[in-house]
């Protein structure tokens, strides 16, 4: 199967000697990368796809049907393994448990992907007519022209805007009879990395909390304790530093859950004592405990129930965490326990004045017995689990596991209508209107392996960004258009080989760059600080009545309601 990954490229050309006709301008173009991968021939059957689209059950889709598409047992197993991984990564004595085989679900072949950058185009991706011309140019470079083409599907991938523009292009040309002219052969695929970045921004925007808050369940509170500055824009965070902070906080909260499970103040010392006595628990025992912790802290139903009512009588029907100390309500303005207000005696009426009827006192607020902090912590751990699973599965090439996270993100993104529409369109297309072979081929087109090693897979869109960064200095130095002969014919077609050749030359004379796989800096101060903070706040214990604010971080539940209120029909 053939796949084209494309993205917009641009740079600002600043003129040093301004004249009419020599103004500062933004130079825009489109860069594209072509690669091939092996699929079943039935995946490229255009006639079968046409019949399935005509008889599509898309109009009958409901939120309940979308939920049945999610493999919740698989997600539970992922959560269990993440609890075990937190132990194996941070507890030296528990590192013996790290030798388990990773779960695989539609694994991409571990082999080097043949990658061929195509000549860039000077067209504007945001303009549909220009996008069509750019696609015709890319197809011609691949040997496909009008009247001389293979009647097989080819895959096109990009970020959210690229994916949407491909759908719009197919819609505009759908009345053409020829499959090439109508772009019926094009199968748009939403790529992974930009989707992961969007979800990471959602997590930070939802769970960061207000400035200077003392809620231990918020991400901002944990970041403040270890000296991390808040992002400049929570709606668009830097991916890698933010993903590292998310992983660290998530691991520490899982270790805090393990501390509560083993009833210890210091989980490191606990395992050290067990190791010296040669009494470390069996892997099966830890796996059973991890499954119990997942159901107590991460499963959405359990955390929601504790947020409503955390008392023993309300949670006796489900696995539950132990009770903590009695919670004293905190005044939001003074951070001190709320003191009962003094009641004054009513004043005597003045002589000669009619006594006025006293106003009835307002009804007292209903007693709150839930633990909103415990519930918010569980919601954060669920969101972090899905985000980290998508990143790990992408690196391993397990695109089936990535697909499960995308189906959850569809329901978890109620405030990002664009990506909700993109994910909904892609899920309906692959689950309802494609055979299994076309679905698998579409998922395999999300990743590539430039080096051919295990664990070296990359999302196609982030690899295209890497190639864009390689060609940007050449175009900026020349201040040339991306469609000019110098860039179009020479540089863009050979940019990957030029970059590889430069790397080999440096290696040959002993000037190779330091390996990118450097040792990870230790996080012992951060680990100690966060675990101490969570232990003192009793974050992983139930404390009925605990609440700091009225924020709602249940995006999964909000997304379910949003889709059920008519968004699907639109």
TrEMBL record:
<feature type="compositionally biased region" description="Basic residues">
    <location>
        <begin position="339"/>
        <end position="357"/>
    </location>
</feature>
<feature type="region of interest" description="Disordered">
    <location>
        <begin position="320"/>
        <end position="368"/>
    </location>
</feature>
<feature type="domain" description="DUF6589">
    <location>
        <begin position="58"/>
        <end position="518"/>
    </location>
</feature>
<dbReference type="Pfam" id="PF20231">
    <property type="entry name" value="DUF6589"/>
</dbReference>
<protein>
    <recommendedName>
        <fullName>DUF6589 domain-containing protein</fullName>
    </recommendedName>
</protein>
<dbReference type="InterPro" id="IPR046496">
    <property type="entry name" value="DUF6589"/>
</dbReference>
């Amino acid at each position: 199967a053939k796949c084209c990954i494309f993205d917009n490229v641009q740079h600002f050309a600043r003129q040093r000697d301004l004249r009419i006709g020599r103004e500062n301008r933004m130079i825009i173009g489109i860069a594209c990368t072509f690669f091939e991968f092996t699929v079943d021939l039935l995946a490229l059957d255009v006639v079968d796809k046409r019949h399935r689209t005509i008889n599509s059950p898309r109009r009958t889709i409901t939120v309940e049907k979308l939920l049945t598409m999610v493999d919740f047992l698989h997600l539970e197993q992922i959560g269990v393994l993440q609890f075990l991984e937190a132990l194996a990564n941070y507890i030296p004595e528990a590192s013996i448990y790290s030798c388990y085989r990773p779960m695989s679900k539609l694994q991409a072949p571990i082999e080097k992907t043949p990658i061929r950058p195509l000549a860039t185009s000077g067209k504007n991706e945001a303009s549909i007519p220009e996008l069509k011309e750019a696609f015709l140019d890319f197809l011609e470079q691949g040997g496909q022209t009008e009247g001389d083409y293979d009647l097989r599907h080819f895959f096109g991938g990009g970020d959210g805007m690229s994916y949407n523009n491909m759908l719009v292009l197919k819609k505009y040309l759908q009345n053409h009879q020829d499959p090439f002219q109508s772009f019926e052969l094009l199968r748009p695929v939403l790529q992974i990395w930009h989707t992961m970045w969007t979800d990471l921004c959602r997590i930070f925007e939802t769970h960061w909390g207000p400035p200077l808050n003392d809620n231990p369940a918020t991400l901002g509170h944990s970041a403040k304790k270890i000296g991390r500055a808040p992002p400049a824009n929570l709606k668009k965070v830097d991916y890698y530093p933010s993903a590292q902070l998310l992983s660290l906080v998530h691991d520490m909260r899982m270790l805090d859950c393990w501390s509560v499970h083993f009833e210890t103040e210091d989980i490191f010392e606990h395992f050290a004592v067990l190791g010296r006595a040669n009494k470390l628990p069996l892997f099966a025992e830890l796996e059973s405990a991890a499954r119990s912790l997942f159901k107590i802290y991460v499963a959405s139903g359990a955390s929601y129930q504790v947020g409503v009512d955390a008392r023993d009588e309300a949670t006796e029907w489900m696995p539950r965490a132990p009770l903590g100390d009695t919670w004293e309500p905190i005044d939001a303005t003074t951070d001190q326990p709320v003191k009962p207000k003094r009641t004054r005696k009513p004043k005597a009426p003045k002589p000669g004045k009619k006594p006025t009827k006293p106003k009835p006192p307002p009804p007292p607020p209903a007693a709150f017995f839930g633990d909103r902090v415990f519930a918010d912590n569980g919601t954060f751990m669920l969101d972090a689990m899905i985000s980290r699973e998508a990143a790990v599965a992408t690196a391993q090439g397990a695109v089936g596991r990535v697909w499960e996270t995308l189906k959850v993100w569809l329901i978890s993104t109620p405030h990002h209508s664009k990506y909700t529409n993109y994910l909904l369109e892609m899920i309906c297309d692959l689950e309802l209107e494609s055979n299994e072979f076309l679905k698998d081929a579409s998922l395999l087109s999300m990743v590539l392996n430039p080096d051919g090693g295990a664990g070296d897979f990359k999302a196609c869109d982030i690899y295209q960004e890497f190639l864009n960064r390689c060609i940007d200095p050449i175009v900026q130095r020349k201040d040339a258009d991306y469609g000019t002969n110098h860039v179009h014919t020479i540089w863009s077609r050979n940019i990957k080989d030029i970059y590889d050749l430069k790397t080999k030359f440096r290696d040959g004379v002993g000037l190779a760059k330091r390996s990118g796989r450097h040792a990870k800096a230790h996080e012992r101060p951060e680990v100690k600080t966060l675990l101490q903070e969570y232990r003192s706040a009793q974050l992983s214990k139930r404390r009925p009545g605990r609440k700091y604010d009225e924020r709602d971080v249940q995006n999964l539940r909000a997304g379910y309601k949003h889709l059920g209120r008519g968004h699907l029909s639109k």
